[in-house]
Amino acid sequence: MFNSSDELLEVLDENGVSTGRGLSRKEIHNHGLWHRGAIVAILNDRNEILMQRRSKTKDKFPGAWDISLAGHTPFGEDSISTVVSETMEEIGYVFPKKLTIQDFRFLTCFRRHDKIAEDYIENQFYDLFVLNKNIVTSNLILQESEVEEVRFFSIPELLLMRNRKELHPRTEWIDVLVKYIKNI
Q: Per-residue b/e over 103-116, b at no fewer than 16 CB within 10 Å?
């Protein structure tokens, strides 16, 4: 059985540039090394965002509401590949064979530091994508070890959840998403 702490991730420098080295996820977190992750906000036609409640068994922020999808980018892969695989793994959504720029786009990259414990430091660059799709949540198959539930929230609801601290603390993406929605 695959253990996610054995997953090989690419080590980045403090500017997000590859060092060419790959280490296990556990080693990267133990030493607080920079690495890449990808996150995606799924929006429906009403500009509501699909949010997931993290499983209570997660090692970081169990039970918190989070962006639609998030995952570490494995060594040798790009962020788009990560988003596609995480979407299938976490919520069981399979992308259509043809995606267009109107459906799926890159918004920004940001970096974040979280010290979870003495031997668990998350120094990560996050690539933020938006997928514009009307997904029927009842058709999704959730990976129970990752996701407890999913549902769409309006932007005012999302902002209220942030103010109440009901979200995964990685919330830098929210203001970027709100600006994106105002400009479409």
A: ebeebeebeeebee
